[in-house]
Amino acid sequence: MGLSGGVACYKSAELCRLLIKAGASVQVVMTQAAEQFMTPVTMQALSQRPVYGSQWDRRASNNMAHINLTREADACLIAPASADLMAKLAQGQADDLLSLMCLARPADRVPLLLAPAMNREMWQHPATQRNVAQVQADGAGVLGVGHGDQACGETGDGRMLEPLELLDELIAFFQPKVLTGQHVLVTAGPTYEAIDPVRGITNLSSGKMGFAVARAAREAGATVTLVAGPVSLPTPRGVNRINVKSALDMLAAVTAHEPQTTVFIATSAVADWRPAQASASKIKKDGSGQPPELQFVENPDILAMLAQSERGESRALYCVGFAAESHDLTANAQAKRQRKGVPLLVGNIGPDTFGQDDNALLLVDEAGTRELSRDSKLSLARKLIAEIANRIGTGESS
Ligand code: CTP
Fold it and tell me: Which residues belong to the active site?
């Protein structure tokens, strides 16, 4: 982990903590400018290793810190990457330990990832953009910048991404890119069917599994659209999210995106019925003690519609359904797979998983069943993405 000079160094302390907590070993290298913003003492305490700042550091027995430091590394993450550092990297300059180390790293097996941080004018300056393009062309990954208030008082692009976003980007970087070039459409969460302007019917789906699937698909290199019912979960980075309320809204959003979709994963708990007519005004008690009489109509089955829609030969769409059951999981999931007309159906026991961070899945396809044992929803989502990739012929074992 490298720090060059910038106010964003205050976020690097938190990033280092998150990396250590996630199980990484972190070797920190700081430029002199970075030491104006954050002390090596803090970074040493958080990383639990002495920090390096100079290419003349005599602690390295061969006096070659710039070589030794990257030989054991899985990746070099520079956060913050200043405009000055990127200019140096673009030119191959190597007059301090950090730039020297980047140049001397074994580029074929130690990827370089940059988290730029600077004032918005500096970021959009043609010289900086030229340097960003050059370092990318030379193989570095530029993780992008955030938008918002800057330490200088201006507002715009150039903020360093937040520590958690950087951690997620780094983790995503290491996931197998088995869905590169695929367009994945995911539905998630419950739907809400209005009775009147203040009431409606919905269900206990938290959306967590669907959001994890969207994240895992993006990590695998896909372009991902997530059609989400009413849930208050953060949008996975790099995922295009469309918020909807009702089943009909969800159908409209899905239909609009279907033409470019190659993989459709329906994780949402769509309400089976909706009130036939939502009242335009709040339904009041009429004093009779009788509840109002509500009529319901069935919602369209979004998954079945997509799975069974006519498509030309050149337009393959792989559809994956979910089934939240309370009992007889295998039999119910197998029957549901047939009924929906999908090649793969993922069964789970709803009451065991609603709102929780873990789950257990049963994959049902033409060949039979396969259990994915209890694990975090994100781990299961990654395994499911690998299974889907194998089935569409883009996976590691396909
Ligand atoms: N689904 C859908 N549209 C609906 C109902 C369900 O797209 N109107 C999708 C879900 O997103 C899920 C799958 O179909 O992928 C199965 O959903 P589920 O509610 O378990 O199945 P139902 O068809 O509603 O069957 P039942 O309630 O009878 O178990």
Answer: 152
Asked if CATH classification 1.20.1640.10 holds for the domain at 183-271+294-392, the reply, yes or no, is: no
Q: CATH 3.40.50.10300 spans which residues of the chain? A: 183-271+294-392
**Ligand 1 center to residue 385 CA distance, Å?**
20
DSSP 190: B
- CA–CA distance, 274 with 288 (Å, rounded to integer): 25
Tell me the C-alpha distance between 128 and 117, whole Å.
11
Structure tokens at 108: 């074929």
Cβ of 299 below 6 Å from ligand 1: yes
Q: 2-173 architecture in CATH?
A: 3-Layer(aba) Sandwich (3.40)
- Shortest-distance atom of ligand 1 to CA 187: 11
Give residue-wise pLDDT tens across range 191-222. Answer: 999 999 999 999 989 999 999 999 999 999 99
Regarding the beta carbon of 178 and ligand 1, being less than 6 Å apart is answered: no
Q: Residue 266: CB within 6 Å of ligand 1?
A: yes
Answer yes or no: is the C-beta of 345 below 6 A from any ligand 1 atom. no
Q: Which of 303, 327, 334, 337 to mutate to test the pocket of ligand 1 (most atoms within 8 A of CB)?
A: 303
- How do residues 335-388 score in pLDDT, each as one tens digit? 999 999 999 999 999 888 888 999 999 999 999 999 999 999 999 999 999 999
- pTM, 2 dp: 0.93
Q: Give the three-class secondary structure for 342.
A: coil
The closest of 260, 223, 253 to 238, measured between CA atoms, is: 223
* Gap between the Cα atoms of 232 and 293, Å rounded: 32
Q: For ligand 1, what atom is nearest to the CA of residue 322?
A: 15
